[in-house]
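Known limitations

Structure tokens in this collection are predictions and should be treated as such. Users comparing against experimental data should check residue numbering before alignment. To illustrate the layout, the record for DNA-binding transcriptional LysR family regulator is reproduced below. The input appears on top and the generated tokens appear beneath it.
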Amino acid sequence: MLDVRRLRLLCDLSRLGTIAAVAAAHTYTPSAVSQQLSALEREAGVPLLERTGRRVVLTAAGRLLVQHGETVLAALERTDAALAAARTGLSGELRIGAFPSAIRTLLAPALVTLGERHAALDLLLTELDPTDVPAALLDRRLDVGLVQDYDVVPTDTDPGLDSVPLLDEAVHLAVPLQATGLRNLRDLSEAGWILASPGTLCHTAAVRLCGSAGFTPRARHRVDDFGTVLALVAAGQGVALVPQLAADQLPAGVRLLPLPTRRRTRVAFRQGAAAHPAVAAFVAALPPA
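Generated tokens:
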């Protein structure tokens, strides 16, 4: 019989790529992870890993076991959801990950609704960039989280996650009110830009959009909070990419130009967890897509 905890480690190795990364995700030592994977190989009766230089890669049998392992882990999630549904009332913790503008506009009312409906459910909210949410879900640091993609930054769905749509919104170019004669991105190839931190989805979207217009944006400021971004635009400090969700409180001195791209937000959770009462309650409390 295969040990499901070791099977989870193998699936994490397939996702994360290195034993060191798996160890960090589980707060184990790399040696402990290696020992557990060796034990899984003995249970399976076939080699699951092979060394290529200093790296460890999955064999064909290892990749096959990962495919079946994802199915097993999803079944365990469904089992946990079924047991939770058999209990009376919702209690315990629901760990939520979301980006700041969604927390302010979408999640705050939903959290109030959940708190009123399920007083024994503890809601733990963590501010996270959408790029960090999938790993936090798969590492079991979150139960639900908001993920995103832009037309210019499509994202692959992780096989261990499911999701439901939440929001499909326009994306604008925020420019100072006094800036005239601007019609499209190409008119801003020499402008100073207010960009998000490198590695965030918003930063990648801005760079790719500008690249499609034939230039690389020159960063004058790097700011992740859209309220601050819009204040800097109003002060004439640069231009910025702003999704509709962040433009609900537009300061004086800023005007928006439409861009040919959209941003989509989805509620993600581990595969098999959709029927968990706490996850279902969270999704139900959000505004309809």
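For this record: The domain at 168-264 is CATH 3.40.190.10 (D-Maltodextrin-Binding Protein; domain 2). The chain has a mean pLDDT of 91. Please report discrepancies through the issue tracker.
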